[in-house]
Amino acid sequence: MRSLASIVLAFEALLLALVTPVMISIADVRPAVALSVCLGLAVLAILSAGLLRNQTGYILGSAVQVGAVGLGFVVPVMFVLGAAFAAFWIAAIVLGRRIEEAKKAQAAQQA
Question: Where is the chain membrane-spanning (predicted)?
């Protein structure tokens, strides 16, 4: 589960960093605000990917998803991209749990 979730967060961090110039040039957001919000979310995504060994990483990762969708109020395409990454995040958690359960069942069967 951890590897799928970390991949989602890594790609999302890249997306959030690339949204910064869009916010500055198209949405006319001040550079200081755009840099602090977008790069702050990107750093939070990377930080949460590193903390996925415990529950804190998943909570921070979910906060990143909320922030990414929330950027849609400034850059409307982020509603779509944020929702897509939120769906990837949920899928990574659900599929990761299924994979872990299947591995445990297989290990118990072999033992």
Answer: 6-26, 33-53, 73-95
